[in-house]
Design goal:
With 298 residues, this protein is mostly helical. Helices cover 54% and strands 0% of the residues. The protein is globular and about 55 Å long. The chain starts with 69 loop residues before the first helix and ends in an 18-residue tail after the last helix.
Amino acid sequence: MPDEETATPTASAPATPGTPGGPLFNSMRVDSLSYDRKSMPRCKCFPVTAPTWGQPHTCFTDFPAPDVSLTRKLGAEFVGTFILIFAATAGPIVNQKYSGAETLLGNAACAGLAVMIIILSTGHISGAHLNPSLTIAFAACRHFPWTQVPAYIAAQVSASICASFALKGVFHPFMSGGVTVPSVSHGQAFALEFLITFNLLFVVTAVATDTRAVGELAGIAVGATVMLNILVAGPSSGGSMNPVRTLGPAVAAGNYRALWIYLIAPTLGAVIGSATYTLVKLREDEVDAPRQVRSFRR
């Protein structure tokens, strides 16, 4: 009988997910705000089958299937946008009702803190876009699938309108204080909204797509950028940076003055801001190996 030490070892089956030493996932994990351009094939076809509600689409050469259902993403996006619009709009309304109690700093803090806590709480589910301009910019720069853009925008718009009417019911008749309207010329307001949204998306693209950026501090970085932008542009243009920040309160208050500025300028600024960071981003061969992405996922 051969020695146990010299016996030929038997072939073992490959490690399966969940076993010690085995991979945690069968396929590469996909983060929709952390797509790398090299790993992102251009979409060359429509989905093979119409997706069932809540299930990711399938396509021969489309984006990899996400590991979170579309229903969960949209639910998180709706709740996150609702909280953001409620908080960011409530600040100016309270400021109007109580004769400047909030001040500009308070208004900026309401929006910045809301963005920060939403990113930290729901960023791992939906990416916490909260902004149609951001969603469009990330899709244009190939960091997010175009097929999910309409659903994300629908969730954001509906959440904004719901939050605005909730505020109208609570603070009536002071809803007009939450509407972002320019106190300067349309040209100046357009330029301000373009520039502050450029700043915002430059930072968001850095923390969301570059593993060398702040990582776990993504929520703080983006929230601080929102706060800074409102301090700069709040008295002039309202510091919207977000079409649904203006659209929902405008619908609830019936005030559509200069609405086109807040739909077009943030979207243009977002696309150019995101593209600019993509252009200046360091290549993999220029620095040490990046650390693993830990936050601001999807």
